[in-house]
Amino acid sequence: MSHEHESSEAGTSPTTAEVPAEPSRTEEMLERAKRILAGDIRPEDYLPVTPELMHDLDEYCKHLETESGIVATAEARQRMLNDWTLQFHHGGTNVLARYTDRGVLVLAAGNDQIGKVRQHLNPDYRHGFALMFPTDA
Hints:
The protein is mainly alpha-helical. The chain is about 50% helix and about 10% strand. It contains five helices and three strands. A three-stranded antiparallel beta sheet has the order 2-1-3. The longest helix has 18 residues, at about 50-70.
């Protein structure tokens, strides 16, 4: 009997078959999507809003008010911020996303991920998410 075989049998050196495989990015994306759709939404699920985006929004709203007397409502500001945030992170890529008053939730980005979500999740389960095509910034 070889020493290699003995150490493997004793459990001191696991074989490749004994090491659990790491979940694929697709599996992680699908599990996250299922969690979000089940209502378990975490702060880190929202696309991050950069300080530059907030500054640009403030400047744009000041310009609107100064130039045309239009004061953006809180809802309008949130909609613009959501649009710009989605464009910043996913401009030029189709996404399955939802806007909320807290920010943008993206379930899937790109044809491959969107195809996997459509393949593995019931259409009724995806209620509230829409296919969006943010323009490239």
